[in-house]
Amino acid sequence: MVQPSDGLSLSLLGTFRLEADGREVQLPIGAQRVLALLALQGRMSRSRLAGTLWPDSTEDRARACLRTSLWRANQAVPGVVTATTTTADLSVLLAVDVQRLVREARDIWQEGPTPPVQLGRMPGDVRELLPDWEDEWLNADRERLRQLQIHLQEALAEELTAQGRYGLALEVALAALRLDVTRESAHRAVIRVHLAEGNISEARRAYATCQRVLWEELGSRPTPATRQMIE
Q1: CATH label of the domain that carries residue 148
Q2: Are 75 and 133 found together in one domain?
Q3: 22 or 46, which is more confident?
Q4: pLDDT tens-digit map of 8-19
Q5: Are residues 146 and 80 in the same domain?
Q6: What is the pLDDT of residues 185-195, one digit of tens each?
Q7: SS3 track for the chain
Q8: Are residues 117 and 219 in the same domain?
Q9: Which of 77, 95, 166, 168 has the maximum number of C-beta atoms within 10 A of its C-beta?
Q10: Which domain, by its residues, includes 224?
């Protein structure tokens, strides 16, 4: 059993990992899913939590599974889940990577990137939400977080371009493009770096690639916003 600590962290981007004071804590899969769902949705009623995680079970069976999972989670890390007779939530001491990512995105879009954010957002550093899990309730959050991370890459590329750090800006922009080759805003990020650096031929080559990919993959042409960058 791990004693209460302020060194608690939960990672959901990539594989599930719960840590206390730098040590990984092993949990049964049911307890893992309880923590993951609460981390994504926040405080929930026990009935909704049980119904979401055990949709094919009877109500009584689902509630019993939830009680067992809550007990096992708090046996492993006392207080990691706070539960009443009607609701459940995560401890305020638990740091969750998904929640940190959302806060980072808000900081960037509301105030602009700061040096610590830039250093923490490395090229191509986009990880899928629990990729080995097949639970349907993860699908919407998976796409939401994938889009959020790509937007962060594009925002960072734009900021680095404005700072004149063209090499790193191009690396970040190309990383975003690799995540979704049909994403026109990522193509624009690449073109923007080349234009800012004065590499007109590279910008035209990047635009030609954008044209080809959009036509071959989507049967469409670049939007006016992209065409005007070259014209």
Answers
A1: 1.25.40.10
A2: no
A3: 46
A4: 999 999 899 999
A5: no
A6: 999 999 999 99
A7: CCCCCCCEEEECECCCEEEECCEEECCCHHHHHHHHHHHHHCCEEHHHHHHHHCCCCCHHHHHHHHHHHHHHHHHHCCCCEEECCCEEEECCCEEEHHHHHHHHHHHHHHHCCCHHHHHHCCCCCCCCECCCCCCHHHHHHHHHHHHHHHHHHHHHHHHHHHCCCHHHHHHHHHHHHHHCCCCHHHHHHHHHHHHHHCCHHHHHHHHHHHHHHHHHHHCCCCCHHHHHHHC
A8: yes
A9: 77
A10: 112-230
For all residues of the chain together, what is the average pLDDT? 90
Domain end among 95, 128, 151: 95
Residue with tokens 């070259």: 230
Domain count, the chain: 2
Encode pLDDT of 111-128 as tens digits. Answer: 655 444 444 445 556 788
pLDDT, position 130: 96
Is residue 104 situated within a structural domain?
Answer: no
